[in-house]
Write a structure and sequence with these properties.
Radius of gyration: 24 Å
Largest sheet: 6 strands, antiparallel, barrel
Shape: globular
Length: 286
């Protein structure tokens, strides 16, 4: 009877010994093992992404010629709109540079947009992080802000050889300074605990007492640029509630994030340029 009980308890004893031994492993060795595991796991994720892309390709091959012609016309119309928008942006950038020159305002730091495909999203941490298909091979730095068409996505937390982990704006680890559109008083945004398949939300602190927000009449939040991580003016979310805090000086509220965060396929990493590179990208004055 005793040998049988010992055999049943043997896996638990082995696990306990491994856990005890792990406590005495140096921190440097732990970081090395963690990084090595991440680099070994990355090719598996990349292969799975390539397989999904191949499946999508063969699905598109089943479309008829009429469907492809209609899609081509829609794409051409979208490109025409984007070309017009790009021309307007160039004109606005030139006008902004001219006014800054007249006012002797130093140029803002330049950014390089590094577009990347979303490689993986963990179902157990849906609102915590994503993995993108670019890393050190594209000079992606740790801490770089990540954006998409709807605003802030998050920031780069880890960088591997050719993949990177992005901590989402809905994660409690992301904290940034924000403004209400039309106001210049800064407040603090922080991600919160979100259910895996619910709506993404965050929290706002230090909200001015005269700011009123309801679900029917929310206030749009944008980045303030304070702290130097995120450029100013990027959409963060909508402030849908604001209640007076315990100190009676500021309000705290709930921030509703963009629902498109749950369906991200492409994002852009903002890589800060060196001063000489930023000056080279400044449009010439008319």
């Amino acid at each position: 009877m005793r040998p049988q009980r010992f055999d049943q308890a043997k896996p638990f004893l082995t696990l306990a010994l491994v856990a005890l031994a792990w406590l005495f492993v140096p921190a440097v060795a732990k970081r090395f093992l963690r990084a090595s595991f991440y680099e070994i796991q990355a090719p598996v994720e990349v292969t799975a992404d390539r397989v999904r892309a191949l499946q999508e390709f063969w699905v598109l091959k089943t479309h008829t010629n009429n469907e492809l012609i209609a899609a081509g016309r829609e794409t051409a119309a979208a490109l025409a709109r984007y070309e017009l928008w790009a021309q307007q942006q160039e004109q606005l950038a030139a006008e902004n540079a001219r006014l800054n020159s007249l006012l002797s305002v130093p140029p803002l730091p330049g950014w390089r947009y590094e577009h990347a495909r979303v490689l993986q999203r963990d179902f157990t941490a849906w609102w915590q992080q994503i993995v993108i298909f670019k890393g050190r091979n594209y000079q992606i730095p740790v801490g770089a802000p990540v954006v998409f068409a709807g605003g802030v996505v998050g920031r780069v937390r880890e960088v591997g050889a050719y993949t990177s982990v992005v901590e989402l704006i809905s994660s409690p680890g992301v904290r940034l300074a924000a403004f209400v559109v039309g106001d210049t008083r800064p407040m603090v945004y922080q991600g919160g605990e979100n259910p895996a398949f619910g709506s993404a939300r965050g929290q706002a602190e230090n909200v001015p007492v005269d700011v009123v927000a309801t679900p029917a009449a929310p206030c749009r939040l944008i980045t303030s640029g304070l702290g130097g991580v995120y450029p100013p003016g990027l959409p963060v979310g909508e402030l849908v509630s604001a209640e007076l805090g315990a100190d009676g000086l500021f309000k705290t509220g709930e921030v509703r994030l963009n629902p498109l965060l749950a369906r991200l396929q492409e994002v852009s990493v903002l890589v800060r340029l060196a001063p000489e590179e930023g000056m080279a990208l400044t449009p010439a004055l008319p």
